[in-house]
């Protein structure tokens, strides 16, 4: 595997500033747009390729299923994690020659038809509950399956995205492992992978080593396991100049676990890490307002396009690209055009005095941006432009 590239999200290195002229040109034609920089995705892939402990990287395509993004990742030998037949079908439409062995299908509380479909279609499926084995054991007879277990502790940037621990709906808990072993046996299934995904937007790298140890412990109960899939969740700094995820520390910890369990391949399935920093949401200032002690900058899109601030209180850098070089002397709230008070992109942000039609960048929106957009208020979903 290749040498690591330095990681950074500082103002000097960030692509949407170095490509500012191109973005301003795009903004001259579009009120709103998601713009993706493919080079940034290539760099993220390259950094993950530098991990010595990881044998395979799968992209969790729920983060961004733009066709150019999918084609790029496929061409870079990144494989795919899908959570619905719709994702698999979209992926195969966009990358028709993709071998099905490059797809892992990890549905949650899905209807039984999805399991039948994955069997007929020949896609590797992951079970994350005992129920399918209890209720439909015949579907799994003689079938190779992955099992998603709950490693016990959930992590992530918000309670909505912690996907392990007793208060999460995901994964087979440790106290059900004995029952799991006997259900697998009765169904005649063949467990080839053990999987966990603890949460999303995890800034610290410390949890993956523990997860790997836990998965290895569970894998020992099944003789044919070849893979420990450690899930995604790797965070990216949400602020310019923020501390990048410590890939080296994660690699070191995983390397130590791997040395104890050399029989297993280690897989990783990030979404955000591969695409978040590659995307920005471009918009324009529509109106300005002062009300009491507050100043508002209104922009041409809203929570219909990017719901993360409203849903998770997520922080996204917001920059006036037209006036990037001017001093940020005002404290403002940046709000959208949707009829809800929650339609606020940023609170108490420092911005230069802005004018109607100034171009605004909402950064780090390449993951869970456009894919979570809606038709709310029948405002346009911003188009996607790849540069
Ligand atoms: N694997 C599985 C089984 C997952 O459920 C997810 C994400 C991933 C991998 C990728 O996680 P990532 O590396 O992107 O953190 N909408 C939320 C994030 C939800 C993540 C859901 N599952 C957000 O905007 O923060």
Describe this structure in words.
This protein is of the alpha/beta class and 387 residues long. The protein folds into two domains: 9-35 and 276-386, Lyase, Ornithine Decarboxylase, Chain A, domain 1 (Beta Barrel), CATH 2.40.37; 106-270, TIM Barrel (Alpha-Beta Barrel). 28% of the residues lie in helices and 21% in strands. Helix 4 (67-75) links the parallel strand 2 (56-60) and strand 3. The longest helix is centred in the middle third of the chain and has 14 residues, at 247-260. The chain is elongated, with a radius of gyration of 22 Å. The protein starts with 14 loop residues before the first helix and ends with a strand. Ligand LLP binds at residues 60, 63, 81, 106, 161, 163, 197, 200-201, 231-234, 269-273, 308, 312, 367-368.
């Amino acid at each position: 595997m290749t040498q690591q590239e330095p990681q950074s999200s500082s103002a000097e290195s960030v692509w949407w500033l170095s490509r500012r002229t191109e973005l301003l040109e795009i903004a001259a034609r579009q009120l709103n747009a998601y713009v993706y920089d493919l080079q940034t995705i290539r760099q993220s892939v390259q950094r993950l390729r530098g991990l010595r402990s990881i044998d395979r990287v799968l992209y969790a395509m729920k983060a961004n299923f733009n066709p150019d993004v999918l084609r790029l990742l496929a061409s870079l030998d990144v494989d795919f994690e899908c959570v619905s037949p719709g994702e698999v079908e979209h992926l195969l439409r966009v990358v028709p020659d993709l071998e099905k062995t490059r797809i892992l299908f990890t549905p949650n509380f899905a209807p039984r038809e999805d399991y039948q479909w994955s069997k007929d279609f020949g896609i590797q499926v992951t079970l994350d509950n005992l129920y399918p084995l209890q209720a439909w054991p015949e579907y799994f007879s003689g079938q190779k399956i992955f099992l998603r277990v709950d490693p016990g502790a959930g992590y992530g940037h918000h309670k909505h995205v912690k996907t392990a621990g007793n208060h999460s709906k995901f994964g087979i808990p440790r106290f059900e492992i004995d029952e799991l072993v006997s259900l697998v046996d009765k169904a005649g299934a063949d467990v080839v992978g053990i999987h966990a995904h603890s949460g999303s937007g995890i800034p610290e790298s410390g949890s993956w080593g523990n997860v790997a140890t836990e998965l290895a412990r569970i894998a020992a109960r099944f003789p044919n396991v070849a893979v420990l899939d450690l899930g995604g969740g790797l965070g990216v700094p949400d602020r310019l100049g923020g501390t990048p995820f410590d890939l080296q520390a994660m690699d070191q910890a995983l390397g130590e676990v791997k040395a104890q369990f050399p029989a297993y391949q280690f897989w990783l399935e990030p979404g955000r890490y591969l695409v978040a920093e590659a995307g920005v949401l471009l918009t324009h200032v529509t109106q300005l307002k002062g009300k009491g002690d507050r100043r508002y900058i209104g922009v041409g899109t809203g929570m219909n396009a990017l719901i993360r601030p409203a849903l998770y209180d997520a922080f996204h850098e917001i920059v006036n690209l037209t006036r990037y070089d001017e001093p940020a002397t005002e404290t403002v709230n940046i709000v959208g055009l949707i009829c809800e008070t929650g339609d606020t992109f940023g609170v108490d942000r420092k911005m230069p005095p802005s004018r109607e039609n100034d171009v605004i960048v909402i950064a780090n929106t390449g993951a869970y941006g456009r894919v979570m957009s809606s038709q709310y208020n029948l405002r346009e979903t911003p188009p996607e432009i790849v540069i």
